[in-house]
Amino acid sequence: MDGYRQRIADQLLAEKLEAIGAVLIEGPKACGKTSTAEQQAASVLYLDDPSQMAQNLQLAQTNIKQLLQGATPRLIDEWQLAPQLWDAVRFEVDHRGDDGQFMLTGSAVPADMSHINHSGAGRFGWLTMRPMTLWESGESTGDVSLAGLFRNSVAVEGTNNLSLEEIAFVTCRGGWPRAVQKKSPRAALAQIQEYFQAIVRSDISRVDAVNRDAERAMRLMRSYARHQGAQTTVAVIKSDLSANEATEMSDNTIESYLNALRKIFVIEDMPAWNPNLRSKTAIRTTDTRYFVDPSVAITALGLSSDDLLNDLNTFGLMFETLCVRDLRVYADAIGGKVYHYRDANGLECDAVVHLPNGSYGLVEIKLGGENLVEEGSKTLKKLSSKLDVTRMKKPSFLMVLTAVGSQAYRRTDDVLVVPVGSLKD
What we know:
There is one protein chain. It is built from 16 helices and 14 strands. The model has no long low-confidence stretch (mean pLDDT 93). It has 2 domains: 8-128, P-loop containing nucleotide triphosphate hydrolases (Rossmann fold, 3-Layer(aba) Sandwich), CATH 3.40.50.300; 144-424, no CATH class. It is 41% helix and 15% strand. Strand 8 (337-342) and strand 9 form a beta hairpin. It has a 7-stranded mixed beta sheet with strand order 7-12-13-11-10-9-8, with helices on both faces. By secondary structure, it is of the alpha/beta class.
């Protein structure tokens, strides 16, 4: 392990502050938003400081401009507690006429958006933060760069130092900074247990002031965890829940719980990729279900790293969530997005990394081993053959992203095999 590295978001934040008046930093609680912003802040307002909170919220009603005074960039933490700050910051940015004035951090979308009268376009930049990647936590060697693959995927080499047992542990622990920094595995795993309890006992209700039952929230998250990486409908989740519900939850109630989890950035579904195909095959456009970090799903299911090692099918699903988390962060660093592909014939690709210039790479995620790598390679080659490259670019690379394997390499069919423990942005 190389040690705790600088967050990828640090550079992205610096670039946005140089280019625009205010930056909104969003993401789940405990992913490091405040500490990332603090490093670049010249002054800070902690809106939820218990000793000042009542006064701060009163000022937001009576003299909001006072809250904006201070050296810049000025960080306003947990801004969603006073949503009217959005318009106040936008107005101030307009009149100061300078970039890098404010940073707003929040672990939830404001419950009351009625105070927001303007989209913020041209004044605000957005930065989504997620739990740490294996590169940021020092557990990936970083020998293989995602950006590098888009420039040149011919010469690929790199080493991976993580065993399957270590991958199982980091999948359970997640990328939460406080957990990563813990010296003992037991203390690290305790962090996600407490985080999960905070979600179901308070955060899922507090986000929009709607009282939600903690037991129902746990059961719903357990069902959601079982469907990681799938395009599961609310009806399927409802069926899962009905076995343990005295009173059946309605579709609207389930959607209410799911929307609350989205607002606090606990779940982050993946949109579908719509390429140009040579055939008329219908593409399924339903979003794919994911938690923002695999540790949340594992905790919801009550599993341990030993359980994963004894059930490789479940391990594969949770490992996929870890890889999607890392790919999303690495893609953000190069301006890209991550999508999922599935068509009506059942052909599926776990992840498509797509850049603004139209370049893209196709990724299958497998635990590893000859048979699974071969299966992933065949899927990638089949999808690649269906793409109409007269109307879009050829794939920049085809990659099987694995848990195990000591080396990254190129197969004779040009498919890359890359352990996640060797990947970085």
